[in-house]
Design brief:
OB fold (Dihydrolipoamide Acetyltransferase, E2P), six-stranded mixed beta sheet, alpha+beta, globular
């Protein structure tokens, strides 16, 4: 007979993981809880994994519902104390723990302990709830049965702010350890299923080899590695080159003649791109295609990402907006064709299948396939790169002809050839606590350039520095903090960084009026004083140069979104944080 696992046991394991900086200790703590959950059955195991990942945030529960439930738990009608504690601690979950502890009610008066099955029932209820009142009532009822520690982790899991340093990689290793599984098989299954909860069940049942691609269920995308990080020489005869497009990555799943579009985060976004879905009307063969959605000009050339941005985040774009920014799906890989799953076939076979699909479908306005070019040597790669830039694209992707499609993996089978458009010397004005493995250090930096005598922010970056450099800056920013709000710090503007980026765009997010696209830190400029950094005039000149080269467009105001109906409680214009709800 299976015995239900108490939610408190999982919370204790997550607290232990939070309180150690050792990756191995985090893995061990979570692995122990997962092994115990598995003894209670697959439902408890799935729930334990999803809570450990903070995946309950996909339910879209907001601060109002969580804060209201906490207030009810504390018997307060004024949320001032909750707001103060959240601002001071930087996390509503930590605030919930502190306030419940201080209330003297450390062991909530409840008829029976909260179980993992109760947490699963809560998530099921929240997903089905049709009003804010119903959602609030469900959360309030769960909080009423929660101890301080349980409330803390319920809030963290529902808000997506777990912050225990247990990134998916740690949970994956915990699954491997808990069930003595082969790590390579666990990683492969995760790539194909894109759901660690289901991977955990397969690992427990010793069925990892059964993981496979299924049309209609998204899988993790294969990723390209920047060529700058590759040490070994490239055999150019063994690779092909594709232009690196400036769009949004997407999968098209055609099942029984109906197309579903999944975005980079694996959320459904079909209604946001109706002309792309319509391009597969009449297709009777089941397909899974990988590619990019691009904004296209009248002559068929791709437009800059900036133009595509007008379409992003719209749940149901108007006919006017669709006409203003027409789109095209450019496929560069096929993963399923009919009954054939092709992920383990070499690229050359998948390419032949993709070309056959393009021939079968014929010319379609919102669908095409990407060209693949033979490159015999580095000179040919350089020439192809220059053509790609002249075509308004970002660069190249070099792909090994004999490579499998390794879902979720960033290896050396695909190499990304890109060059930063320029670099800027900037001053750090604010710093934040990192996430995942960097949750214990200050690793996210907001930076600025000069506008006269004033520093104005132009971007934020968290990649590019080594761990010792991050540790060095963390200590420095703690010492030079001017203001603290949770994990965010305003710091003395005395650190200079050199940053590279892929482009500049106008933005009302920063005081400068500009933002950098994909910024990354190249180095700490200890040789430069803050007053020697770049100015807003330099930023504007680089922006105008991009306009002249065709890699950017001056922004055009999109048509207004449809007005929200007074009778409706749902927005008809905007996607939720995670797009359309992913069906279970």
């Amino acid at each position: 007979m299976l015995h239900a696992m108490h939610f408190a046991r999982l919370c204790e394991a997550l607290e232990a993981a939070k309180n150690t900086s050792s990756r191995n200790a985090k893995v061990a703590a979570i692995a122990g809880a997962l092994a115990e959950a598995a003894r209670s059955g697959p439902l408890d195991l799935r729930t334990a994994v999803r809570v450990s990942l903070g995946d309950l945030s996909r339910l879209g529960v907001g601060w109002r519902a969580l804060g209201g439930a906490l207030g009810a738990r504390l018997g307060e009608t004024n949320d001032a104390r909750i707001v103060e504690a959240t601002r001071r601690l930087g996390d509503l979950g930590d605030a919930a723990f502190e306030l419940i502890e201080r209330s003297g009610d450390k062991n909530a008066a409840r008829s029976e302990p909260l179980e993992l099955a109760d947490v699963d029932a809560l998530t099921t209820g929240l997903r089905a709830a049709t009003s804010r009142a119903k959602r609030a009532a469900l959360i309030t009822a769960a909080f009423a049965r929660s101890t301080a520690l349980e409330a803390k982790f319920l809030v963290k899991a529902l808000s997506g702010e777990l912050r225990i340093g247990a990134a998916p990689g740690v949970v994956l290793l915990a699954i491997t350890s808990a069930f003595a599984a082969d790590e390579a098989k666990v990683r492969r299954a995760h790539g194909l299923l894109a759901d660690l909860a289901e991977v955990a069940v397969l690992a427990h049942d010793k069925k990892l080899d059964e993981a496979n691609v299924e049309p209609g269920r998204p899988l993790a995308f294969m990723l390209a590695t920047p060529i700058e990080t590759i040490q070994s020489p490239i055999d150019y005869r063994a690779v092909i080159a594709e232009e690196k497009l400036d769009g949004v990555r997407a999968q098209i799943h055609v099942v029984h003649g109906a197309a579903t579009i999944f975005a980079r985060g694996l959320e459904r976004v079909t209604s946001a791109f109706p002309e792309v879905a319509a391009a597969f009307a009449g297709v009777t063969t089941d397909l899974v295609l990988d590619g990019e959605i691009l904004a296209i000009a009248e002559d068929g050339r791709s437009r800059p990402f900036q133009a595509l941005q007008m379409r992003l985040g719209r749940k149901a774009p108007s006919a006017e907006l669709i006409a203003l920014v027409p789109l095209c799906f450019v496929a560069f890989d096929v993963l399923v064709r009919g009954r054939d799953v092709l992920v383990d076939r070499p690229w050359r076979e998948r390419r032949a299948a993709l070309e056959a699909i393009a021939t079968e479908l014929g010319k379609r306005t919102a669908f095409t396939i990407k060209d693949a070019l033979e490159v015999a040597d580095s000179a040919a790669v350089d020439a192809a790169f220059d053509r790609a830039r002249k075509n308004g694209n970002e660069g190249l992707v070099l792909k090994k002809k004999d490579a499998k499609y390794e879902a979720g993996k960033r290896g050396q089978s695909w190499l990304k050839v890109k060059k930063a458009t320029a670099t800027l010397d900037v001053v750090v004005t604010a710093a934040e606590q990192g996430h995942g493995g960097r949750a214990s250090v200050i690793s996210d930096y907001t930076f600025a350039v000069w506008k006269g005598d004033e520093l104005v922010d132009v971007g934020k970056a968290y990649s590019g520095l080594t761990d010792p450099e991050i540790d060095q800056l963390s200590r420095h920013f703690v010492e030079t903090t001017l203001e603290v709000r949770g994990g965010w710090r305003k710091v003395s503007p005395d650190v200079v960084l050199e940053v590279g980026f892929d482009g500049i765009q106008r933005s009302d997010r920063h005081a400068s009026g500009f933002s950098l696209r994909f910024p990354r830190i190249l180095k700490i400029r200890e040789d430069k004083r803050p007053d020697e950094c770049d100015t807003i005039e330099t930023v504007e000149a680089l922006y105008l140069a991009q306009i002249a080269s065709g890699h950017r467009e001056e922004p055009v105001a999109p048509p207004p979104a449809p007005k929200r109906s007074a009778k409706s409680t749902k927005s008809s214009a905007q996607l939720s944080l995670f797009g359309e709800e992913r069906k279970k």
